[in-house]
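Hi there. Long-time user, first ticket. I'm pasting a complex I've been working with (about 1219 residues overall). I'd like to know whether the download I got is complete or cut off, because the file seemed smaller than I expected. Thanks.
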Amino acid sequence: MANKEPLIRIRKKDDRPLYQKILIKIVFVVLALLIAALFINSVTKLNPLDVYASMFRGAFSTKRRIWITIRDTCLLLSIAVGLTPAFRMKFWNTGAEGQILIGGLVSAAMMIYFGGKMPNAVLLVVMLVLSMVAGALWGFLPAFFKAKFNTNETLFTLMMNYVGIQVIEFFVDVWDKKQSHSVGVINSETRAGWFPSVFGQQYLINVLIVVIVTAAVFIYLNYSKHGYEVTVTGESESTARYSGINVPKVIIRTMLLSGALCGLAGFTEVAGISHTISTQTSGGRGFTAIIVAWLAKLNPFIMVIYSFLIVFLNKGAVQIASDFNLNEYASDTITGILLFCILASEFFTSYQIVFRHKEEQ
Amino acid sequence: MERFDDMDNNCAIQLKNITKSFGSVKANQHVSFDIRKHEVLAILGENGSGKTTVMNMLAGIYYPDEGEIFVNGKQVTIKDPKDAFDLGIGMIHQHYKLIDVFTALENIVLGLEPEEKNDMAAARKKVNDICERYGFEIDLDMKVYDMTVSQKQTLEIIKVLYRGADILILDEPTAVLTPQEITKLFAILKNMRRDGKAIVIITHKLNEVMEISDRVTILRKGEYIGTVNTSETNENELTEMMVGEKIVLDIARDFVEEKHKRLEVKHLTVINKDGKRVVDDVTFDLFSGEVLGIAGISGSGQKELLEAIMGLQKPEEGSSVVYYSTAHGVHELVGLSTREIISHGLHLAFVPEDRLGMGLVGNMGMTDNVMLKRYRKGKGPFLHRSQPQQMAVKIRDELEVDTPSLDYPVRRLSGGNVQKVLVGREINNKPTVLMTAYAVRGLDINTSYAIYNLLNEQKKRGVAVVYVGEDLDVLMALSDRILVLCNGRVNGILDGRTAVKEEVGLLMTHLKEGN
Amino acid sequence: MTGQSLLAWISAAITFGTVIMFGCIGETLNEKAGGLNLGTPGVMMLGGIASLAGAFFYENVVTAPNPLICVIISLLCCLLACSLAGLLYGFFTITLRANQNVTGLTLTMIGTGIANFFGGSLVKLSGGVGQINVAATSRAFKVGIPVLSTKLGIVSKLLFDYGWLTYVVLAMAFRMQYFFNKTRTGLNLRAVGENPATADAAGINVTKYKYAACTIGSAIAGIGGLYYVMDYVKGTWSNDSGIEALGWLAVALVIFTSWKPANATWGAYLFGFCYWVYLYIPGSISNVLMKLFKVQRSTYMQNLYKMIPYLVTIVVLILVSSRKKRENQAPASLGISYFREDR
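Hi, the file is complete. Here it is re-exported in full:
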């Protein structure tokens, strides 16, 4: 009689203990690595163990590679952290790409026009400030219209990315002396506007910037009055208005901050890593960071872990590509597999599946 | 306790040992009772007693964890609403399940007949037949967002009948109706009973149980308590079964001699986004030491009126709200933002209708919620949590808020505790004016009375209290004066001690001449 | 502007419009059921590569490819790949109740990754960049309407000389409009997108409708990718994620049309005109702008003109949001996942 009862039912279960949640996450990350291995194996017929060994080499085999892995983890983390204030406010800033690009563009412009004309330290400070201003401007427009007309910010910020790309294309042409549609390494002789090595470490400043930004954002959001306003506004605009918060002001202020931090990431990329500008400067990190930030539930510590995993897989994929003569797009696919698996793990941490036979106990 | 044999063909539905839990909350535990044809069965219980949950399992919204359901003597499985329709069970939910942007007719045919040809003419005829048979009046081409609550309810009932329901379940059907509309509804229910239908009404209002039902089934804290014939019981017995103890149902109404004017509202007008005058030229005074009840069918401008006073809605030109207080002097509130009202230290407290959507932040704990209106206090850019924390402790202890910790998200607290946090915070600030909207909606009887007592206590301390409510009986027992809103206008201000319920009901629906 | 260049502009706009019209009506179907699929650009990439791969292997195996089989194979590959991608999106957002934005963005990332990965491999297989060409299939898709496309002179050129998918998508757009407004299934689908709890209580299988909408919607959007590969770039492939950029415009177009597929029939072409306007800006205006920006070459300026479609989209977004008409709003439950037992 009761055989019409559904075979599988889903029950909400949001009171799982922490260790179970962590365990579920680990299981799914391992699952992601297995699926990724399967994918690589199916297109290359390689032994997955060799592949992972190769990937591991890609990320850690030399001291320099370790530093590059750290550097790239930091860069991704800094964008995710930059998105955090906006996301805390439930503002879908999908425009990190554009904000990074425009921040990087301004940095590059400063390097080109003022390189050698002022002390390097001053130049770096000017670049830092102006790139943040530029990123903030890119964040301001969508925020203003969101505040005024409740204009859909997801698509607005997305379109701003493409506007940013065209601005970059324009300046690349203008600055390109050889008509090769590329700016090339800027100030390769003078190294003006480049991050200096500190204690012999080329990327220490990159790391320092991220550590400072992460700590500052964490404190800002959790302990400052502004941060409280951001959280209340994100939870419910009605509550925010009820408590006397000027909602439009908070939306605009927070997006200025978020845009500025993404602009800062662009500055770090240009001054501290690539020393050039192109539409590839952001390299899709703006999108990856969105997913990282959201999957980490805006917790900076979990963001570190996810950023690292993604960078590791990325480096690994590039390494396999060169070791086994594949193309570099394998890394996007593998990153996607990882993200889908983490996304799936979300479900199992907050819901429970009930099978029919369990009912009959 | 009565038991009926399975073959009893008068029995429409039998529930046996139904158990349902949500996470760690047990909503129903081993509930068994039956529903008969040709009768109106009232399911009586407090908020949180699991009466809606058990009916939702008949409607296919929830699936029971344990237990069996028999319809017309046969064991059945109801895994979704479609199964429920096929068994002739139709439920009218408390929060109407209608699509706002569809017309009445579109809502009625929704989800039926998968054929590609959209034969609205046949559907229209069938609906008209139903309307004639039971005496409904409805405009089938009206969009739902243009309808009044009562029209929406009519539509819901027609929708269920159109699907051929023989067993109708109505969840709190009278909650938002005027006395006149309730009379009309009961007449229709009686028509349907005569027609052989089984009718279940979920309610917590005793007078209605006595008026309309044949039998009463009582639930308490998710458990089945018993079933009695209405003719053999009385309100006191039912209350005792419902609450589990004897309680006095009288609401105190003390008289405070000393009265001072606290608010002078003049020509207050608010026009909403759709261009409708939701508050229309409202004028009244509010005094310390009184409870001013505001009556009106839902959506008559109650919400906007309170929000306009708080600076959350922008009043039109010519509106004026003057605030008098002994400590802070006289202020014109129109033109001040909520923030300015708070920062000028004007002690207006407001308990809004939407507790977790406006009054509190669901994902924050008590401390952070207590801070909501005072987080700006203290020097520097950082928050000062120590004082709010002390207040939270005080509120928790004085109002007996049941929470695991001060950081536990208030969203996860029970409805009663949520409201205690909100009311506690608002009266903690020693208000001059305290405005409440639907302060006891969804609360159990004991918490409701705790809230009434708190309001009365505030009144005795010289606070001017505004009470917007939907239960007219409570409103009339609690209020010193009753202001009736109709279509955003003041349609009369009555003395709470002499007012008659029918008169208030009429004022709620019919604008007086020249008004 | 000469008649010749105007004609070229119109024709470019129509081809462009066809790509995003597929994307737009596919996405509209999805959104009407409450699913905001930001994975549409990725789905379109997949549609492109799947159709290309299918055609490539068929054309490599046989010496004289049959046009009909070319069409069938590439269309089937495209529909299969995109339905699967739609199912994946559905599985995550409907069954696993994952956040729609995050799922969509991930889908775009993985779709673009897979497309470029296999695209790169196909390019390598065919002997290097620019070598891949599925000429036979491309020709089969570029067949226009018989008689009308040749016999009417300028009118033929203007209106009838496009690949047949151009007309298919127009018919689909109107059919979908009819489906939403005049059929019971369409009514039910809209109810799911407006208020799933209500639809559920009315006996509509919400999960089924949502799955159907995202699977079929993705399949339709994917044909946009196929059209891009076969007609727009004439059967070639380059790893520049050009489809992705158009995919985002398709998503934006949904808002522009205020969720009415019939509006896409002109909106898409309008976007097309904006997209190609950079080639047709009169020299006099261009010269003034060049002076203003102190730029020597007009090709530099084109980079800026290429912003126009995105700027127009932004302006449209602002306009749509600033005038709030009830009938033009997004489906009320858009972006929210539904769980019946939610309390």
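A couple of notes from our side: The mean pLDDT of chain C is 87. Chain C has 16 helices and no strands.
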